[in-house]
Each structure stands twice: as structure tokens, then as C-alpha cells.
């Protein structure tokens, strides 16, 4: 987005970003649900959404500081926001490929066979107890 030269190309890039980013939150929650029981999941999801909130809160301050780079390399300050945040995103994405573990059913490298079975047993027991719960509007 730092390389766009027209409003139309900026809108196209933002639409593409939204399309690619739209699966992030559901994907993270799905991934976490494959490792933690239902009663453990809410804490992890709240940490995830708190991180999103903090990123939004400090993102503006960070962007303000970056815009002070106006003129560096002959570029406007707003372009530097996209350059720097884009570089960080690409680096973290590349690291994620190596750091995010497989699902427990795929026997991740960092678990022994017995630990993997224990994780799977915990999740299967939790899945059975969740099926037996009845829906209640009072709980809603």
C-alpha cells in the first residue's frame, strides 16, 4: 500500500488486505480450540482479543511517530507506515511458519507420544461433556 499512486489502487489494496485478513481471528480461535478444553479456551481467547485492543490503542501512536519520517528516502511519512508495518508482518509471518506447532492429532515434534495421547484424551473427554449440555435461554 505504500507504493500506490491513486485512490483506486489504495482501495483495491485495502480490499485485498481485508479479504486475506478476514480469516485470522476465526483461525486463531480454531487453532486454540484444538489444544485447550472449553473451560480453558475463554482465557486464551480473551488474551488474544486484549492483544488486538492494545495493538489498536498503540497503533495510532506508533503511526504518528512513523509519519515523522517524512522525507526520509524521498518518501512521504504515510508511506513509511505501510513499509515498516508491512516488513514486520512479513517477518512475523515467515517466523510463524516455523514456530506454530501442528495440531495435537498430527503428533507435534515437541510432544512425546504419551503427552500427545494425554492432550487428545483431554480434548475428547471435554468434547463428550460439551455434547451433553442443554441449551438454556437463561444462560444467554
TrEMBL record:
Q: Where is the signal peptide?
A: none
- Pfam families attached here? MFS_1
Cell compartments where the protein resides:
Membrane
Domain (Major facilitator superfamily (MFS) profile) ranges: 1-140
Q: Is Membrane given among the entry's keywords?
A: yes
Q: What are its GO cellular component terms?
A: membrane
Primary residence: membrane
Q: Which SUPFAM superfamilies does the UniProt record give?
A: MFS general substrate transporter
GO MF annotations for this entry?
A: transmembrane transporter activity
Name under which the protein is recorded: Major facilitator superfamily (MFS) profile domain-containing protein
Membrane topology listed for this record: Multi-pass membrane protein
Going by the UniProt record, its keywords in alphabetical order are: Membrane, Transmembrane, Transmembrane helix, Transport
Where are its TM segments located?
6-33, 45-66, 78-100
